[in-house]
Design a protein that fits this description.
Elements: E1 10-14, H1 24-40, E2 45-48, H2 62-72, E3 77-84, H3 90-103, E4 108-113, H4 120-127, H5 137-148, E5 169-173, H6 176-185, E6 189-191, H7 200-210, E7 222-230, H8 234-240, H9 242-253, H10 272-281, E8 285-288, H11 290-304, E9 308-312, H12 318-333
Parallel strand pairs: 1-2, 1-9, 2-3, 3-4, 4-5, 5-6, 6-7, 7-8, 7-9
Protein backbone atom coordinates (compact mmCIF):
# COMPACT_ATOMS: atom_id res chain seq x y z
CA UNK A 1 0.00 0.00 0.00
CA UNK A 2 1.40 3.41 -0.97
CA UNK A 3 2.48 5.55 1.96
CA UNK A 4 1.57 9.22 1.84
CA UNK A 5 3.49 12.00 3.54
CA UNK A 6 0.28 13.00 5.30
CA UNK A 7 0.16 9.60 7.05
CA UNK A 8 3.56 9.62 8.80
CA UNK A 9 5.00 11.58 11.75
CA UNK A 10 7.45 14.39 11.05
CA UNK A 11 10.13 15.58 13.46
CA UNK A 12 13.07 17.95 14.02
CA UNK A 13 16.78 17.30 14.48
CA UNK A 14 18.45 20.39 15.91
CA UNK A 15 22.25 20.39 15.81
CA UNK A 16 22.24 23.55 17.95
CA UNK A 17 24.15 25.33 15.21
CA UNK A 18 26.09 28.44 16.18
CA UNK A 19 25.91 31.06 13.42
CA UNK A 20 28.54 33.62 12.46
CA UNK A 21 28.35 36.64 14.76
CA UNK A 22 26.38 34.83 17.49
CA UNK A 23 27.13 32.73 20.59
CA UNK A 24 25.90 29.38 21.99
CA UNK A 25 23.64 31.40 24.29
CA UNK A 26 21.90 32.80 21.21
CA UNK A 27 21.66 29.28 19.78
CA UNK A 28 19.90 27.90 22.87
CA UNK A 29 17.41 30.79 22.85
CA UNK A 30 16.62 30.18 19.17
CA UNK A 31 16.36 26.40 19.72
CA UNK A 32 13.73 26.89 22.43
CA UNK A 33 11.81 29.25 20.12
CA UNK A 34 11.98 26.76 17.25
CA UNK A 35 10.84 23.93 19.52
CA UNK A 36 7.81 25.91 20.67
CA UNK A 37 6.87 26.68 17.08
CA UNK A 38 7.50 23.07 16.01
CA UNK A 39 5.19 21.88 18.76
CA UNK A 40 2.42 24.20 17.53
CA UNK A 41 2.96 23.03 13.93
CA UNK A 42 2.45 19.36 14.79
CA UNK A 43 6.02 18.06 14.84
CA UNK A 44 6.22 14.77 16.72
CA UNK A 45 9.66 14.94 18.32
CA UNK A 46 12.60 17.30 18.73
CA UNK A 47 16.03 15.70 18.98
CA UNK A 48 19.48 17.07 19.73
CA UNK A 49 22.81 15.47 18.86
CA UNK A 50 26.03 15.04 20.86
CA UNK A 51 29.08 16.59 19.21
CA UNK A 52 32.35 17.81 20.71
CA UNK A 53 35.10 20.26 19.77
CA UNK A 54 33.07 21.80 16.94
CA UNK A 55 32.73 25.57 17.01
CA UNK A 56 29.46 25.44 15.04
CA UNK A 57 27.68 22.88 17.29
CA UNK A 58 26.61 23.84 20.83
CA UNK A 59 24.92 20.60 21.98
CA UNK A 60 27.96 18.94 23.58
CA UNK A 61 26.15 18.66 26.94
CA UNK A 62 23.23 16.98 25.20
CA UNK A 63 21.21 15.94 28.27
CA UNK A 64 21.31 19.50 29.62
CA UNK A 65 20.05 20.99 26.35
CA UNK A 66 17.29 18.35 26.15
CA UNK A 67 16.13 19.53 29.57
CA UNK A 68 16.17 23.14 28.34
CA UNK A 69 13.99 22.26 25.33
CA UNK A 70 11.61 20.01 27.27
CA UNK A 71 11.18 22.76 29.86
CA UNK A 72 10.28 25.27 27.16
CA UNK A 73 7.61 23.01 25.60
CA UNK A 74 4.58 21.05 26.76
CA UNK A 75 3.75 18.09 24.54
CA UNK A 76 6.41 17.45 21.88
CA UNK A 77 8.72 14.50 22.53
CA UNK A 78 12.31 15.59 23.20
CA UNK A 79 15.40 13.44 23.04
CA UNK A 80 18.82 12.58 21.74
CA UNK A 81 19.70 11.95 18.15
CA UNK A 82 21.89 10.83 19.69
CA UNK A 83 23.89 10.24 22.81
CA UNK A 84 27.25 8.73 21.82
CA UNK A 85 27.14 5.95 24.39
CA UNK A 86 30.83 4.92 24.29
CA UNK A 87 31.63 8.43 25.59
CA UNK A 88 29.72 7.69 28.80
CA UNK A 89 29.05 5.17 31.52
CA UNK A 90 25.67 3.50 30.85
CA UNK A 91 24.76 4.12 34.50
CA UNK A 92 25.30 7.88 34.16
CA UNK A 93 23.15 8.03 31.01
CA UNK A 94 20.45 5.97 32.76
CA UNK A 95 20.47 8.47 35.64
CA UNK A 96 20.44 11.51 33.34
CA UNK A 97 17.57 10.25 31.20
CA UNK A 98 15.78 8.88 34.25
CA UNK A 99 15.94 12.41 35.63
CA UNK A 100 14.66 13.90 32.37
CA UNK A 101 11.80 11.38 32.18
CA UNK A 102 10.90 12.10 35.83
CA UNK A 103 10.78 15.83 35.09
CA UNK A 104 8.96 15.49 31.74
CA UNK A 105 7.07 12.17 31.92
CA UNK A 106 6.11 10.46 28.67
CA UNK A 107 8.11 12.86 26.51
CA UNK A 108 11.75 11.68 26.52
CA UNK A 109 13.51 9.61 23.81
CA UNK A 110 16.99 8.11 24.13
CA UNK A 111 18.71 7.66 20.77
CA UNK A 112 22.10 5.96 20.99
CA UNK A 113 25.08 6.01 18.65
CA UNK A 114 28.49 4.40 18.82
CA UNK A 115 30.64 7.03 17.08
CA UNK A 116 32.60 9.54 19.20
CA UNK A 117 30.86 12.55 17.67
CA UNK A 118 34.22 14.25 17.28
CA UNK A 119 37.83 13.84 16.15
CA UNK A 120 40.15 11.16 17.56
CA UNK A 121 42.19 13.53 19.74
CA UNK A 122 39.04 14.85 21.40
CA UNK A 123 37.67 11.32 21.71
CA UNK A 124 40.81 10.40 23.64
CA UNK A 125 40.23 13.37 25.94
CA UNK A 126 36.65 12.19 26.55
CA UNK A 127 37.18 8.45 26.83
CA UNK A 128 40.73 8.20 28.17
CA UNK A 129 41.49 4.56 28.88
CA UNK A 130 38.07 3.65 27.45
CA UNK A 131 39.12 4.48 23.87
CA UNK A 132 37.90 1.07 22.67
CA UNK A 133 34.51 1.45 24.37
CA UNK A 134 32.76 1.37 20.97
CA UNK A 135 33.51 -2.36 20.84
CA UNK A 136 31.22 -2.90 23.83
CA UNK A 137 28.39 -0.77 22.44
CA UNK A 138 25.91 -3.71 22.14
CA UNK A 139 26.63 -4.81 25.72
CA UNK A 140 26.32 -1.22 26.98
CA UNK A 141 22.89 -0.88 25.34
CA UNK A 142 21.81 -4.01 27.21
CA UNK A 143 23.19 -2.54 30.45
CA UNK A 144 21.10 0.59 29.88
CA UNK A 145 17.99 -1.51 29.34
CA UNK A 146 18.74 -3.38 32.55
CA UNK A 147 19.11 -0.14 34.55
CA UNK A 148 15.73 1.04 33.29
CA UNK A 149 14.03 -2.26 34.16
CA UNK A 150 11.98 -2.73 37.32
CA UNK A 151 13.76 -6.08 37.80
CA UNK A 152 17.01 -4.21 38.47
CA UNK A 153 15.73 -3.25 41.93
CA UNK A 154 17.58 -6.23 43.41
CA UNK A 155 20.89 -5.27 41.77
CA UNK A 156 23.75 -3.81 43.84
CA UNK A 157 23.96 -0.98 41.24
CA UNK A 158 20.75 0.89 40.47
CA UNK A 159 19.79 3.94 38.40
CA UNK A 160 17.89 6.32 40.65
CA UNK A 161 15.98 7.94 39.00
CA UNK A 162 15.61 5.76 35.94
CA UNK A 163 14.67 2.37 37.30
CA UNK A 164 11.22 1.20 36.20
CA UNK A 165 10.71 4.08 33.78
CA UNK A 166 9.55 3.58 30.20
CA UNK A 167 12.12 5.49 28.16
CA UNK A 168 12.16 4.45 24.48
CA UNK A 169 15.64 3.51 23.28
CA UNK A 170 16.54 4.01 19.62
CA UNK A 171 19.60 2.79 17.75
CA UNK A 172 21.14 5.43 15.51
CA UNK A 173 23.23 4.60 12.52
CA UNK A 174 25.16 5.75 9.50
CA UNK A 175 26.27 2.27 8.39
CA UNK A 176 25.05 -1.32 8.26
CA UNK A 177 26.54 -2.35 11.65
CA UNK A 178 23.93 -0.40 13.57
CA UNK A 179 21.16 -1.87 11.41
CA UNK A 180 22.04 -5.40 12.54
CA UNK A 181 22.11 -4.37 16.20
CA UNK A 182 18.78 -2.54 16.05
CA UNK A 183 17.23 -5.57 14.33
CA UNK A 184 18.66 -8.06 16.84
CA UNK A 185 17.41 -6.04 19.83
CA UNK A 186 14.03 -5.25 18.30
CA UNK A 187 14.50 -1.51 18.66
CA UNK A 188 13.49 1.41 16.40
CA UNK A 189 16.19 2.52 13.97
CA UNK A 190 17.10 6.09 13.04
CA UNK A 191 19.45 6.61 10.09
CA UNK A 192 21.68 9.65 9.54
CA UNK A 193 20.88 10.04 5.86
CA UNK A 194 21.31 13.81 6.27
CA UNK A 195 25.10 13.38 6.11
CA UNK A 196 25.84 9.67 5.41
CA UNK A 197 23.37 8.51 2.73
CA UNK A 198 25.69 6.01 1.00
CA UNK A 199 24.60 2.91 2.96
CA UNK A 200 21.10 4.11 3.82
CA UNK A 201 19.06 1.82 1.54
CA UNK A 202 21.22 -1.21 2.31
CA UNK A 203 21.06 -0.57 6.05
CA UNK A 204 17.29 -0.26 6.27
CA UNK A 205 16.88 -3.40 4.15
CA UNK A 206 19.16 -5.33 6.53
CA UNK A 207 17.23 -3.94 9.50
CA UNK A 208 13.84 -4.96 8.14
CA UNK A 209 14.96 -8.41 6.99
CA UNK A 210 16.61 -9.29 10.30
CA UNK A 211 14.22 -7.60 12.71
CA UNK A 212 13.25 -9.64 15.78
CA UNK A 213 10.13 -8.48 17.60
CA UNK A 214 10.68 -7.44 21.22
CA UNK A 215 8.68 -6.20 24.18
CA UNK A 216 9.55 -2.70 22.96
CA UNK A 217 8.58 -3.04 19.29
CA UNK A 218 6.58 -5.62 17.33
CA UNK A 219 7.44 -4.54 13.77
CA UNK A 220 10.40 -2.63 12.27
CA UNK A 221 10.31 1.16 12.59
CA UNK A 222 12.62 3.31 10.47
CA UNK A 223 13.19 7.02 10.93
CA UNK A 224 15.21 8.85 8.26
CA UNK A 225 16.86 12.19 8.91
CA UNK A 226 17.15 14.50 5.90
CA UNK A 227 18.17 18.09 5.18
CA UNK A 228 15.36 20.48 4.31
CA UNK A 229 15.50 24.11 3.19
CA UNK A 230 12.05 25.40 2.28
CA UNK A 231 11.13 28.94 1.18
CA UNK A 232 8.46 30.83 -0.74
CA UNK A 233 10.39 30.45 -4.02
CA UNK A 234 12.88 27.89 -5.34
CA UNK A 235 15.41 30.65 -5.96
CA UNK A 236 15.18 31.91 -2.39
CA UNK A 237 15.50 28.37 -0.99
CA UNK A 238 18.52 27.68 -3.18
CA UNK A 239 20.25 30.82 -1.91
CA UNK A 240 19.42 30.09 1.74
CA UNK A 241 20.81 26.56 1.26
CA UNK A 242 24.27 27.95 0.49
CA UNK A 243 24.84 28.20 4.26
CA UNK A 244 24.37 24.43 4.42
CA UNK A 245 26.72 23.93 1.48
CA UNK A 246 29.40 26.07 3.14
CA UNK A 247 29.03 24.02 6.33
CA UNK A 248 29.63 20.79 4.43
CA UNK A 249 32.53 22.35 2.55
CA UNK A 250 34.07 22.88 5.99
CA UNK A 251 33.55 19.19 6.80
CA UNK A 252 35.18 18.15 3.51
CA UNK A 253 38.18 20.46 3.94
CA UNK A 254 38.53 20.07 7.71
CA UNK A 255 38.23 23.85 8.06
CA UNK A 256 35.12 24.16 10.18
CA UNK A 257 33.53 27.57 10.68
CA UNK A 258 30.49 29.01 12.36
CA UNK A 259 27.42 28.77 10.10
CA UNK A 260 28.02 31.33 7.38
CA UNK A 261 25.50 33.71 5.77
CA UNK A 262 24.15 32.75 2.33
CA UNK A 263 26.12 33.69 -0.79
CA UNK A 264 24.98 34.45 -4.33
CA UNK A 265 27.22 31.92 -6.04
CA UNK A 266 28.80 28.83 -4.47
CA UNK A 267 31.17 28.57 -7.43
CA UNK A 268 33.04 31.47 -5.84
CA UNK A 269 33.37 29.49 -2.61
CA UNK A 270 34.13 25.84 -3.34
CA UNK A 271 36.18 23.87 -5.84
CA UNK A 272 34.71 21.19 -8.09
CA UNK A 273 36.21 18.51 -5.84
CA UNK A 274 34.69 20.07 -2.70
CA UNK A 275 31.32 20.38 -4.44
CA UNK A 276 31.41 16.73 -5.50
CA UNK A 277 32.38 15.46 -2.05
CA UNK A 278 29.80 17.60 -0.28
CA UNK A 279 27.19 16.61 -2.86
CA UNK A 280 27.65 12.93 -2.06
CA UNK A 281 27.05 13.63 1.65
CA UNK A 282 24.05 15.83 0.83
CA UNK A 283 22.23 13.36 -1.42
CA UNK A 284 19.22 13.37 0.95
CA UNK A 285 18.65 17.12 0.82
CA UNK A 286 15.34 18.72 -0.15
CA UNK A 287 15.35 22.35 -1.23
CA UNK A 288 12.68 24.56 -2.72
CA UNK A 289 9.07 25.65 -2.38
CA UNK A 290 6.44 23.68 -0.53
CA UNK A 291 5.31 22.15 -3.82
CA UNK A 292 8.83 21.17 -4.87
CA UNK A 293 9.61 19.58 -1.51
CA UNK A 294 6.26 17.76 -1.37
CA UNK A 295 6.96 16.14 -4.73
CA UNK A 296 10.57 15.22 -3.93
CA UNK A 297 9.86 13.98 -0.41
CA UNK A 298 7.00 11.80 -1.66
CA UNK A 299 9.42 10.18 -4.14
CA UNK A 300 11.84 9.62 -1.24
CA UNK A 301 9.04 8.01 0.78
CA UNK A 302 8.00 5.83 -2.18
CA UNK A 303 11.57 4.59 -2.51
CA UNK A 304 12.34 4.02 1.18
CA UNK A 305 8.95 3.34 2.85
CA UNK A 306 10.27 4.90 6.06
CA UNK A 307 7.92 5.29 9.02
CA UNK A 308 8.96 8.80 10.04
CA UNK A 309 10.92 11.69 8.54
CA UNK A 310 13.09 13.96 10.67
CA UNK A 311 14.31 17.22 9.18
CA UNK A 312 17.40 19.21 10.04
CA UNK A 313 17.79 22.70 8.60
CA UNK A 314 21.08 24.61 8.72
CA UNK A 315 19.70 28.06 7.96
CA UNK A 316 21.53 31.26 8.87
CA UNK A 317 18.57 33.53 9.56
CA UNK A 318 16.33 32.41 12.42
CA UNK A 319 13.13 33.71 10.84
CA UNK A 320 13.97 31.96 7.57
CA UNK A 321 14.55 28.76 9.55
CA UNK A 322 11.14 29.11 11.21
CA UNK A 323 9.54 29.70 7.81
CA UNK A 324 11.22 26.58 6.43
CA UNK A 325 9.89 24.37 9.23
CA UNK A 326 6.42 25.93 8.98
CA UNK A 327 6.28 25.24 5.22
CA UNK A 328 7.51 21.69 5.79
CA UNK A 329 4.78 21.07 8.37
CA UNK A 330 2.24 22.15 5.75
CA UNK A 331 3.71 19.61 3.33
CA UNK A 332 3.02 16.83 5.85
CA UNK A 333 -0.42 18.20 6.62
CA UNK A 334 -1.27 18.35 2.91
CA UNK A 335 -2.07 22.06 3.13
Amino acid sequence: MKKELTSIPYSVLDLATVIEGKTPADTFKNSADLAQHAESWGYHRYWLAEHHNMISVASSATSVVIGHIAGATKTIRVGSGGIMLPNHSPLVIAEQFGTLESLYPGRIDLGLGRAPGTDQVTAMAIRGERMNAANSFPQDVLKLQAYFSAENSNSPVRAIPGEGLDIPIWILGSSTDSARLAAALGLPYAFASHFAPAQFLTAIQIYRQNFKPSEHLKTPYVLACVNVVAAETDAEANKIATSLYQLFRGIVTGKRMLLQPPVDNMDDVWTEYEEEQAGQMLACTFTGTKETIAKDLQQFLDQTQVDEIMATSHIYDHQARLTSYKLLSEVFKGI
